[in-house]
Amino acid sequence: MWRQGVGESVRMEHGRVVVVTGASRGAGRGIALALGASGATVYVTGRTANDGDSGLPGSVNSTAAEVSARGGVGVPVVLDHADDKAVAALFERVGDENDGFLDILVNNALTLPDALTGKGPFWSKPLSLTDLFDVGMRSTYVASHFAAPLLVHRGSGLIVNTSSFGGACYMHGPAYGAGKAAVDKLAHDMAVDFRPHDVAVISLWMGLLLTERTRAAFADHPDAYAGLAANAESPEFVGRV
Question: Which residues are catalytic?
Fold first, then answer.
C-alpha cells in the first residue's frame, strides 16, 4: 500500500499524476505526450521496452523520455496488461510514489491481431481475434479496479477509456465492435459507482489517427487508402481534448 507522505513533493512540483496504458505508440503515446506538455507526471505502460524491440516504431522508454523533454515527468513501465498481478503492482507503485493519489487513468491498452482488418466474415478468421477482449475490454476493467482506491483517496479524478464509433456500427467485425461497445458500457456503469466520490469516467471516441500502424498501412496500400491520410488526426489531438 502507499506510504503516507511519500511523493508529496512530486505532486506539488509536477502537477497531475497520470497513468496511460498502451503508450508505446499510437493514441497512447500521443495522449502521454500531450499530458507531459501540461506538466503532468505520466506513468507510461506497454510491452515494448526499447525502440527496435517491435516491428513498429515506439517504446515505453522513448515515450517516457519525450514526456520529460516536454516538461512533464515520464515514468516508463514495461507491462503486459494481460497480467493482473503486474497491473496490481503498477498501481501499488503509483500509490507509494505519490502519497496514495492518482488524478487520471487513461485505458488505452489494446491487442490488435493482424487478422483484424482482413477480408471475409468473422468465421473465416482465427479465434485469436478474441485476444482483444483480454487486452482491451478486460484490461480496462482490471486497471480501473486497481486505480479506484487511489482516485477515491484523491476525492476527484478522471478515467478515460479510448474507444471509437466501432461500438455503434460495423467496423472490423463483431469482435472489435463488441470490445468497443463493452468499454463504452464500462465507462457508463463505473461512472455510477464513482459518482459519490467525484470521479468522472468517460469513453472517448477517436477518429482516424495518423499512428505508426496507420502510416505503415498507408505506405503498403496507397491506392486502398487514398485520401484518408489527409483527414487523419495527430495522435496528440486526443490528448488535448
Answer: 176
